[in-house]
Amino acid sequence: DAEKQAEGLLAGISDPDKSKVTISGTEAVSYCNQLETAMSGPGTDEDTIYHIFSLIKNEHDMRLIYKAFGLRKSYMWTEKMDLIQWLNSEMSSSEMSPINVKLSWLS
Fold this sequence. Notes:
mainly alpha
């Protein structure tokens, strides 16, 4: 199921190198909460998503945000999903295009 798949992905991402992150843990949590709000409820606030991704400077920032997002449940789903699953469920492939490079840093 989607939740087990997300748990596997989350466990498979290595932790960020704290000496290379450009954002604090507090900022990462704030960004994650802003991303969740941008994707919650009717409609998706792509501008907020693009803004948050513009603040991600390297793969270590991306890992920190991905790990901080963790698995979250939305009003729409019965299972918890990770950041990538949330984004894929809320945005079309063309809308995802500007952020795909940074998401690829998780591989």
